[in-house]
Structures are given as structure tokens and as C-alpha cells.
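Quick question, first post here. What does this chain look like in 3D?
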Amino acid sequence: MGRRSQTIRNKRKIKVDDYCNNSIDTSEINKYLSKGLSREIKFTIISIFVVTIVMISSAYAIFSSIQKADEANTLTVGTLNVEFSTDSKELGNIIKLNGAYPESDEDGIKEKPYEFKITNSGNVDAGYKIKIVDDNDMIEADNCSDNLLDKGEIRVSVDGKPPFTLSDVASTEYIVETGYLSAGKSKEYSIRVWISDASGNEVLGKHYHGKILIEAQNTSTLCNVISGNGASIGDEIVCGTERFNVISNDGYNINMLAKYNLNVGDSKISAGSDGIQDKDALGKKENMLTYATVEYSADSSNINEYLENYKNYLTEKSKLNSVTVNLLTIEQANSLGCDTASSTCASSQNKFIFDTSYWLASTGDNNNIYTISSDGSYGPTAYSNHIDYGVRPVVTITKEDLN
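> Answer (accepted):
Ran it through. C-alpha cells below.
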């Protein structure tokens, strides 16, 4: 009995010994657990870092595609290179009026402009249109399509010229300027945009997202009506790259006054194209540099040469059928609201007729020629004046010349 009990106790002891001999040291367990946990933590941190980088990159890519797609410093349009000036406030060609307050034209025209230069890098002449259009990408990104400024509340000035409301050019797909460049020539532009002070408090907090767009234009086309129907005084017509305002239309013949003076004379714009209209050829005008002024020679030979060259240009480039080119007469000026008695055109509702300073066709006496000045004055001026007045032709086309 005692021996059996001894045996059982020994067996139990063996079992206990076996169990202890086969067990793992807890320090080893902790060691393995620490290594595994360390790997998991490292993996988790790396994963979070990678995901964060991807999210940031994706967000930047989305932002860049919206902000940068159309506002690169240099754009290429056919043979035209367009260089936009950028700084901390402007994004190249991107226009934003978010949070802007209404202001007067006097203050708006002093705002910092959007500036750019267009260069014709090709071997042939090139025309272009400058537009202000909606930036739909930014409108979508900003989710503000139901909180946009009306275009009737947005004022625009190109190169410091008299401002206009953006809605006024809606019929021309918001063309704010057209131009023409000979091969290798360049032109610089500045555009200012602000909210009209005629707007009420309802514009506060509203958005406007737009962009300046340059489009190539065919320089060998017939004429197109871009404002009105081409029959009323002041309607605008473009022939190739040349712009005009209608001064009369008898149903067949259309008389048009050039929008700008011709780039001729000793003070012509060196960066412009000789002999055709130029946006800076305004004659003497307050707060503007004076370009393209000429003396009216006693026999008018120099004026006639400029007009003949311009006629040849229009015939060749715009494919017009029977174009004639002359200077404005007193009779035409009076029909547009000028008054010889008071020596002014300023009271005329046709303001375009004194956008520039220029010679007329009619003589005042042996030593004088009638002129219209950009301040609205109207009357005889000495032939020899070569610092104030330029050549602003009247062009006559027929209805067959309209596309």
C-alpha cells in the first residue's frame, strides 16, 4: 500500500516536471510580441504617411487643374504667343471679383491691371480676338453658380480707354478687343475689371470667376456685324481685323468710321503695323500718350497716300468688293450730332465720334482744316499742326461685303 502510493507520487512528479520542461520562458514571449508589435506600428505609420501624401497630391492636382489649366504665364494660340504677367494678387489670365466692393469708374480705372503681351512668332500676318469669358472650372469648384455677379454689374477698361459694362459685349461672345500683328511684331495690353458703383448692396458676397481668352482670327474675310444689326448708327462692324462704327446705311451702301486712327506719320507706334488702325493711335487724348499724329499738307498729298494704302489693304486682306476710303466731312459730322455753331461734338449721343483726335475732309479757310478732338471740341485747325491730330478714315462698303 505504501509502495503504490509512492509510485503514484513519483508519476505525478514526472508529469509536473515534463510540463515545466516543455514550457516557454515569458521573457521570450515578450520579446517576440515586441518585435511583432513594432513591425505593425511601423507598417501603420508608413501606410498613414503614404495615404496622406496621395491625398495631398490628389488635392493639389485638382487645385492645379482648376487654377493653372488656363493661366500659364505663356500660352500659344496658332502663331501667337501670349505672355501674362503674374504677381501675388493676380493669377495670369484668371479674373476674380470675390469679396470686391463696388467702385466708381474713376477709381476702377486705377486698379492694378491684368497685363499681357501678344507676339506673332509666325511668318505671316495674324489677327486675334481678346475675350473675357466665364471660368467654369472655378465656378464648379467654388460651387457658386447660384451666387454669381450679373455681367451688367461688371465694368471693364482696356488699356485705360473709356470703360464699358461686360454685358454690353454679350452679343459678340464677350470680345473686348481685336487686333492684328505682322510677323515678328508684339503688342502689350492691360485690362482692368471692377464692380460698378451703380450696383446695390445685393452684390456684396457675390462671386465672379472669369478668364482672359485670346482667339486667333481669320485676317482674310469679309465683314461681320458684331454689335447691333449693321443698319443703325454706332453699330460695330469688323472687316478682317479692322473695326468700325456705322455712321449711315441706305440699305445698300454702309458708311463706317474707323474705330481708331491709322498708324501713320512720324509718331506712329513702332510695335504696331504700319498704315492700319491701332488701338493706341488716338491722336491727342487726355491721360494717354499721343501717337500717329500727322500734319495735313497744303495739297493733302500725304493724307491721300495714307487713305489709298488703307484702301489697298482692305481690298487685299478683307476681300471687299468695291470699298472706298475718305475722311469724315462736316456734313457727316453734323448729321452725327456735332454743331459748327457751338464748335462741339460733346453733346452728341454718338460718343464714338470723338474717341480720337483727327482731321476731317473739309477746309475752314486757306490755312485751316476742320478737326474733331477727343475732348469733344470741333472746328478749324491750322494745316501745320502735326502734334494733335491723326487720320481716321470713313470706309464705305456694300451689303454684299457682309458675311
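The chain has six helices and 19 strands.
The chain has two domains: 73-217, 223-401.
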